[in-house]
Automatic annotation (TrEMBL):
It is found in: Membrane. Residues 33-171 form the MARVEL domain. Residues 1-21 are annotated as: Disordered. The chain crosses the membrane at residues 40-59, 71-95, 107-127, 147-170. Pfam families: MARVEL. This is MARVEL domain-containing protein. Keywords: Membrane, Transmembrane, Transmembrane helix. One of its GO terms (cellular component) is membrane. It comes from Nematostella vectensis. Its main location: membrane. It is a multi-pass membrane protein. It comes from the Eukaryota.
Length: 172
């Protein structure tokens, strides 16, 4: 073979072909992540957060009476978006493209931070609802807002589960 002749595809071993395919930007889909416990838990977080902010977000005059409503909405919508981004990163194996980041530690820290913020915001909103119902003039807060707060608390359990799973993965 001359030095001027290009390397033919049949001359490249199989494992080098796969490395070349990855380096050319081919994205593989990791369906196994969605079936794994981590993927299912992340999907549960997305559903619970969606239910939490969907139940509380529909227009109502009570939103102005609830002082911590905006904080609750922030702490349910923002992590919902982040959870979707994390699922996309794992689903399309994009976490493998950036090995410099410890993704398990990143998701662990993310889960702990959002657990703390969501439990605080859910507690504050639950207190606001209780304060409205304890007034001399009884104000009945719609049940959907109470259900949204309940889903906020439920999402906390999902985030704690996520943090524990990633902690165990880090510990080996």
């Amino acid at each position: 073979m001359n030095e001027e002749d290009p390397v033919q595809p049949e001359d490249i071993p199989n494992n080098e072909k796969q490395e070349n395919k990855r380096s050319q930007g081919a994205v593989t889909i990791n369906v196994g992540y969605l079936k794994s416990f981590q993927g299912v838990l992340k999907f549960v977080e997305i559903v619970l957060l969606l239910l939490a902010f969907a139940c509380t977000s529909s227009g109502t005059p009570f939103n102005n009476l609830l002082r911590n409503y905006d904080f609750f909405m922030f702490t349910t919508v923002f992590p919902w978006i982040l959870c979707i981004i994390i699922i996309i990163l794992y689903l399309f194996c994009l976490v493998d493209k950036v090995p410099q980041i410890n993704w398990n530690l990143t998701v662990l820290i993310n889960a702990v931070i959002w657990f703390i913020l969501i439990i605080i915001s859910s507690s504050l909103l639950a207190r606001d609802i209780g304060n409205l119902e304890d007034l001399i003039v009884k104000i009945e807060v719609p049940a959907r807002i109470k259900v949204g707060v309940a889903f906020g608390f439920f999402s906390c359990f999902a985030f704690i589960g996520d943090a524990v799973i990633h902690f165990l993965v880090i510990r080996g």
